[in-house]
Predict the 3D structure of the following.
Amino acid sequence: MPVLVELRGVSKHYRRADTGETVVAVEDVSLDVHQGEVLGVIGYSGAGKSTLVRLVNALELPSSGSVTVAGQELTALPERDRRQARRKIGMIFQQFNLFRSRTIAGNVAYPLKVAGVPKAERDRRVAELLDFVGLLERAHAYPEQLSGGQKQRVGIARALAASPDLLLADEATSALDPETTSEVLGLLRRVNKELGVTIIVITHEMDAVRQIADRVAVMEQGRVVEVGDVYDVFSTPKTGAAQRFVRTALHDRPSTDTLARLRERHPGRLVTVQITDEAGLQNRIDAVFRSAGVTAELVYGGVGEIRERRIGSLTYELTVGGGAGAGDGAGGGARAGAPDAIDRAVAALRADGVTTDEEAAA
């Protein structure tokens, strides 16, 4: 796919007025956003996500590097031309930023009015957009009469008013409950699929990335530390930051407290096996355990889907022969029975390309 947004060596440094200290918000970021995709940019607070999005729409200029959108290097344009370029970049915000004194229709019409679009065309476009986001019947209501999810839908309609090529969503679902978040993300996916708008979603919630993104870029301390297809990052995260985010979204691995409770009830060896969409994987796992003479009891896990592809982890208690009770103390059955059999089973899974992790005792 053609590249719509191109960042090359982009850094943004601030100097604090009170101390004179230099603050690094974004450091040496090079990133492409392809036309027609949804890119999720994720990071914890202070990672540089919001600064990055302000650099993309040239509300701030980088200390070094270049930002190019739709073939225009925004960092090289005079301010007047940058303002013109921004009209093709829509923006939605966490706190909606609606005009309280204007109706819903008036909010959506505002950017068109500023751009000098004739009233008849404005009215047609506003009706079209409010119908698209499911709020045509609330056109004459005011923001205070709407729910949070409805306000964000108005924000999306307003951001689409000028038919942008690119839509930036900065923590757009952070103020919403989970059900409303899913509805808003579903609407953004429609914007992408039906209108062909490229979207950059800035978020600290990996679950939002899982629901909507095609690719994901992980930020930490101002840098992009990992970028890739969303399924690949979820299934094989390469950095510690990505691994932490994936755990929060999948909920498929036992936490430290959960693991301690599992050990009270399951004294055998606890091994976690990663589940992917590979055909016949579960049958192969079961066959390896049977062949090695290992009893595998499923004690924890979760399997879901990303882009209609299966992903997750299952944690098993592995025992041999007399079971978990045959031996001395916790883990006696697995260790005193036939630990070599369990080792062989785990080694066979790994040789077959299955990712496994032993849940070591604390």
Q: What stands out?
A: The radius of gyration is 25 Å. Residues 178-195 form the longest helix (18 residues). Confidence is low (pLDDT under 50) at residues 323-337.
